[in-house]
Amino acid sequence: DDELQTDGNRSGHFRNGELGLAPTNEEVIRIIAAQLAEIGDQFDKEIQGRVVNDLVQHFLNENLSKEEITQHMSRVVRELTQSIPSDMEQEKAMLVLAMVLTKKIVNTVPSLLHRVFSTTLNYMNQQLHNYIVEMVSA
């Protein structure tokens, strides 16, 4: 039921009728999405295939719990964040890296879409929820 939106468009589906965020200006959300997409394109070129393949192996391992995979993804994002220029907000870098990794994993193994998407969503809710709410409401 969840939709992965990477083009700046908002998903038309909400859980239990709840939006989760205060109503916002569509144009502001499109501008934020365009900026994140541009940053993501830059990060996409820098992420090595072995990082993606390692994450794919974790997602394919059905013995690992959601929490273990989320922790591993969090660790990978933190490690990748270390190589990001220091002039970028760490939370923004983490958000974009999580989305880029999700895209790369799903492009590598499309059958993992549901598991990767729900793990990324869980990671963003745990680690970046306040940042996302502040960014959209600012």
Automatic annotation (TrEMBL):
Q: Name one Pfam family in it.
A: BID
Keyword annotations for this protein, in alphabetical order, are: Apoptosis, Cytoplasm, Membrane, Mitochondrion, Mitochondrion outer membrane
A Gene Ontology cellular component where this protein is annotated is:
cytosol
The signal peptide stretch is none
- Residue stretches spanning the membrane: none
GO BP, sorted A to Z: apoptotic mitochondrial changes; positive regulation of extrinsic apoptotic signaling pathway; positive regulation of intrinsic apoptotic signaling pathway; positive regulation of release of cytochrome c from mitochondria
- Record-linked InterPro entries: Bcl-2-like_sf, BID
Say which domain of life the source belongs to: Eukaryota
Compartments, as annotated in UniProt: Cytoplasm; Mitochondrion outer membrane
Q: What is this protein called?
A: BH3-interacting domain death agonist
